[in-house]
Structure formats: structure tokens, C-alpha cells
Amino acid sequence: MAGRRAASLTFGWAVGYGGFGVACALTGTPVFAGGGHRAPASVDWAVVAFALLTAGAALAARQGPRPVVRGLLWALCGLSVVSAFGLLMSLITLVFGEGVDSRAATANQALAAVGTVLLARAARTLRSPVARDVAVRREPVPASRPIRLTAWAGTLAFAPYAAMKTVWALDGTFAGTNGAEMRAIAERNGASGLWLTLESWGLDGTALLAALGVFLLFGLVRPWGQVFPRWIPFLGGRRVPPALPLVPAVIGAATLAPYGTAGICYAVLGTAGVVTVPRGDFHSSSDALLVAWVGLAAFAVYGAALIVAARSYWQRTR
């Protein structure tokens, strides 16, 4: 029953996603964009093809468990993760900046993130009747010790990043740039009023987001992340729907892990002198490289820890 419901939800999403792709393709609105570049609108038909294939797989999943269909759903889930790449950065830009460069691209990322969760759920619930019969409701338990240590690694990776941002927010100097200069740069680059207000209070928006990310990470590996707190009216003690923490986990992991990993590779080449790192808004290339190392290392390690923690959470709550 759960498998048919998950397949039906995935089918409904595929129909909506396909309609979105058709509308964008017919109006000439590119849905794939990144780094200031946009793919031709004709590439939007790839969204339609993906949606049709997903709809077909979802219909096949309703007929019963088959390894081939289950494998296809996982493959489509992986492609959906790729399409969702950059959603976290888009959301941060939407809140703290002037706005996203492309609303269609951001909408595509958001829809892909939802599809990732639905496809994964459909694939996981597509088990044999025997497996469904013996499934039991598990009590909240912590993740294994290695996974909890991974969560600590992801947390500690953010410490230098949060410290750097806090130094600037408190008018200190790091990498040759002081807080006043950073605020001027942010304002020149179109920072929102919310961002500038937080900075005037000595708070950095991305440091606050890092704190929320750490909260999410530990919620995925500790028992309290599986139940609502007692102090929440009408919900205290009830189970947290797995999608509630897993959706932001997927969004974060799909953006930060590949972004940080690719960035570290670039930073290594820059440190070795193979490529020249542009100084950007900083006083020198070495300053820009130092800031890049601090930020990209945090993103890469935290993103990897989020993947491990989310997988553990899924297994412990299925």
C-alpha cells in the first residue's frame, strides 16, 4: 500500500514537472542556469523527457516490486539531485541578496529537490511483500558512533568559517580585509536590507545559517531529531515526518558537497600555482585564496557529513 501511494505521488509530481518544462520550452525560458550562464531554451525539453520517463517508471512501480523498476527510480533520483544543484545558494541569494538571477532556474531546482525525495521514497518502498510484512516501527535511536563522529567533523569544519564571518561582522580584520570593507562590498553587490541589518548588529547571515545547518546535522543523528519536542502544543512527543528534516538535508547536500569538493580542487590548483586565483573583492590573490580555503573546506566536509547523516536517518526511520 505504501509503495502504491509513493508511486502515485511520484507520478503526480512528474506530470506537474513535465508541464513546467513544456511551458518554459514553449515560451523560450531557460531553466538551466549557473555561474551567470544559461543553457538554450531548447534544452528545456530534457525536463519534459525526464518527466515522461519518471511518469512511466511510477506507473510501472504501481504494478508491484520489480528490481529493474526500482533501479530505474534510483537512477532518476540521481539525475534529480543533479538538477537540484544550486538550490541552497539560490535560496540564500533570495533572502540576503537582490534576488535570484533566474526565477525559472530556481523553480526548476526546487521542483527537482521535491522530486528527489519522492523518487527516493518510491524506490525505497518498492520492496517485496515479505519485506513489507516484517517491517516494524522503530523507536527513536541515535546513529552509530562513526556517523555521530562524522557529524562532529561536519560541525568542526564550520568553526573557522563562522569565526571568519564573525570577525568581519564585529569590525575585525581577516585576510587583509576589515568589517567595514566587507559591508561596503556586500552593499555594492546588492545585499538585502536584512543582511545589512544583521551586519549592523554584529551578526553574519551565513554564520547564522551555518548554525542552523549544525542543528539539522545533529537532529539527523540524535533521537530528538525523530520526535517533536514536548513543549510544542498538540505535537509534543509525536513522530517527525521523515521528509521534514530530509528535504533540507537533500537541498544542502546536493549543493554544498559538490560545490565544496569542486572548489577545493580549484583551491589546490591555485595553491600549487597551476591556476591564478582572481583577487575579486580582496586586496590580493593570496587573500582570496585564504578565504576560499576556509569557506570551501567547510562546505565540502559539512556536505559530506550531511549525506552520511541523512542516509542514516532514512535507514533508522523507514
Can you put this structure into words, describing what you see?
- This protein has 318 residues and is mostly helical.
- The protein folds into two domains: 2-134; 145-317, no CATH class.
- 70% of the residues lie in helices and 3% in strands.
- The strands form two sheets. It has a two-stranded antiparallel ribbon with strand order 1-2.
- The longest helix has 33 residues, at 285-317.
- The protein is globular and about 65 Å long.
- Residues 130-135 have low confidence and may be disordered.
What are the key terms here?
318 residues; mainly alpha; 2 domains; two-stranded antiparallel sheet; 4 strands; 70% helix; transmembrane
Domain count:
2
Structural class estimated from helices and strands: mainly alpha
Query: Major beta sheet, specifics?
Result: 2 strands, antiparallel
Helix and strand sequence: HEEHHHHHHEEHHHHH
Distance between the termini: 15 Å
Helical percentage:
over 70%
Question: Which residue ranges are poorly predicted, with pLDDT under 50 across at least 5 consecutive positions?
Answer: 130-135
Q: What is the count of helical runs?
A: 12
**Whole-number average pLDDT?**
85
> How would you describe the oligomerization state of the chains in this entry?
single chain
Proportion in β-strands: under 5%
**Total E-strand runs:** 4
How would the global form be characterised? globular
Radius of gyration: 22 Å
How are strands sequenced across the largest beta sheet?
A: 1-2
Keywords: Membrane, Transmembrane, Transmembrane helix
Organism: Actinoallomurus liliacearum
Protein name: Integral membrane protein
Transmembrane segments: 43-61, 73-97, 205-225, 246-269, 289-310
